[in-house]
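INTERNAL AUDIT FORM
Audit reference: QA-55
Scope: verify that the stored structure record matches its stored sequence.
Auditor: D.O.
Record contents follow.
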Amino acid sequence: MSNRRKFLRDGGLAAAGFLISQPLLFARESAPKTRRLTILHTNDVHSRLEPFPMDGGSNAGRGGVAARAAVIKRIRQQEEHVLLLDAGDIFQGTPYFNIFKGEPEIRAMSLMGYDAGVMGNHDFDAGIDNFASQLAAHASFPMIMCNYDFTGTSMEHLHSPYQIIRKGDLRIGITGVGIELEGLVPEHLYGKTRYLDPIVQANRQAWILKKKKNCDMVICLSHLGDAYKDNKVSDEVMAKESEHIDLILGGHTHRFFDAPRVYNNKTGNQVIVNQVGWAGLRLGRLDYSLEATGKKDLQRSETITIGKIIGD
């Protein structure tokens, strides 16, 4: 009898303990899950494949794809979910482009594992057909453009208005916009390409990504320029006129931001804008935490100098 009473007593205590623990268990399971995302980005690399020469200049020894690739590799080893993006002007600026017309630049980006890029005005410098052929032959990453209508051109089937990239259970939506080409690029180089309003088009794609495709975050790759004194469309204008874009990674104006800029969009939510100069001298890094509730928090931002000389 004593063994039977002990069994009933112990079993009852165990059952009671299980029932008491259930609210805590369910609370833990229903608590918002926080995910981390590291975003790395470049812009206006301009065919700078090698470091700047050791000529005593301020950039001597800095830049170069080998040093950048080493930094990217190290970060990927440290972080689980990493995005690598480029905001345009891949081409033009060194003899590599004059001789090889962009092949080594696209190959290098593919080897570094870029997730997506956008076209800059200088990417038309050897003609739209050349850019298309380099992408088709050597790119392992998509070219995202939503405000260039490439109908009837060689780029028609080599771009997309948006891309969704999965990182773990995160869905990251990416769209891209380019600057107006008329007056900036000779017409024969861009051919039948039609420029569309970047704010209208980016907002349209961002709505699709956020509302229809249920993306956790929407990024716009922009080659508009960060800001102008007149009313010319820019990253600043786009940020203020947007509704569903969370982050704008910019280019064209070659600005070295000391820190990301923060704007409020049309709904009062924050939009982050960042840009990291030119020539591959720096790599931008943004570390986000994302909760299942939709809350996004920029926990860390860093501009990494590439190929920095030890002791300087």
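Auditor finding: record pair retrieved intact. The chain has eight helices and 13 strands.
Action required: none
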